[in-house]
Amino acid sequence: MPIDEQLAAAVDVARVAVDEAADAGTVGDHVRAVEDGERLVSHQFACTKPGYAGWYWSVSVSRAPDSDRVTVNDVVLLPGDDAIIAPPWTPYKERIRPGDLSPGDVLPPDEDDIRLVPSWTAGDGDEQTPDRFFAREVGLGREWVLSFEGRELAADRWQEGEQGPDAAIAQQASGVCHSCGFMVSLAGPLSDRFGVCANGMANDDGKVVSFDHGCGAHSGARLSRSASAQALPPPVFDTVGVDEVEHY
C-alpha cells in the first residue's frame, strides 16, 4: 500500500507539533516519513538534545476517510538503531553475586528454592546418611535444611572452585588435604568429601577444602636437600698471603 501523500506532505504540521512539545533547540532536520497504517504516518525529526545521540522525535499524524484535515496524534522521543539506551532491567536476584551482601542487606531464598526442604523430610531415601543425623537436624529446631540437590550443588561448587583439586596451588602440592594433620573433619552428608583447613599459615585457613585439594603447607611437607640451608666450613685466617692494594 503506497503512503498517504497528503499525510506524507504534512511536514510543517508535524514540525509545529514537535516544536511545541520539545525543549527549544532540540529538534533537528526532518529525516523521513514512515507509514504506520492506513491513513497513519509518522514524521521523524533528528534530536539534537545533549545526551540523546541517535534518538529522534516522532510525530504521528492521521486523517479521517474523505477528509483533508490532518490530525496530530502524539509526539514521542524514540531511540534509533545507533542510540545509547539503558540495558534491559534485570531483577536484583539475578544481578547479585557472592560477596555482594553488605552489613544490613537481606537476601531471602526463593519460596520454591530447590536447595532447601523441610527438615522433617530431609534424608528420605538416602541410604548413605545415618538416620540419627537427620533426627538431630529436626531436634535443632531448624525449619529448613539442605535438600539433596542443595548438597550436590554445594559439593560441585566447592569441588570445582579454588579449594578443589584443579586449583593451581593444588596441582603442585606435596600432599592432599585428606592426609594433612591440619584438616578438621566435618559432620553430615558432605563429611566424606570435604573438611576445613585449620592451618593459620595456609591460604585456605578456615575454608572448606576437598579431600583431594592440597597446598605447600601440608603437615607432612619437608624441604628438599637442595632447598635447605647448606652447612659452610669454618672461616680460615690467612697469615701467609699478602693483599696488594693500589695507592692513589
Report what the structure shows.
With 248 residues, the protein is α+β, with helices and mostly antiparallel strands. Among the domains are: 5-79, Nuclear Transport Factor 2, Chain: A (Roll); 161-210, no CATH class. It is built from 6 helices and 9 strands, in the order H-H-E-E-E-E-H-E-H-E-H-H-E-E-E. The strands form 3 sheets. Strands 1-2-3-4 form a 4-stranded antiparallel sheet, covered by helices on one side. It has a 3-stranded antiparallel sheet with strand order 7-8-9. The longest helix is centred in the middle third of the chain and has 13 residues, at 148-160. The protein is elongated. The N and C termini lie far apart (106 Å). This is DUF3027 domain-containing protein.
List keywords for this structure.
four-stranded antiparallel sheet, single chain, three-stranded antiparallel sheet, elongated, 6 helices, 248 residues, alpha+beta, Nuclear Transport Factor 2, Chain: A, 21% strand
Low-confidence stretches: none
Q: Characterize the main sheet.
A: 4 strands, antiparallel
> In percent terms, what proportion of residues is strand?
15-25%
The coarse silhouette is: elongated
Residue-averaged pLDDT, rounded? 86
Order of helices and strands: HHEEEEHEHEHHEEE
Number of strands: 9
The spatial strand order of the largest sheet comes to: 1-2-3-4
Q: How does the helix and strand content classify structurally?
A: alpha+beta
| Terminus-to-terminus distance | 106 Å
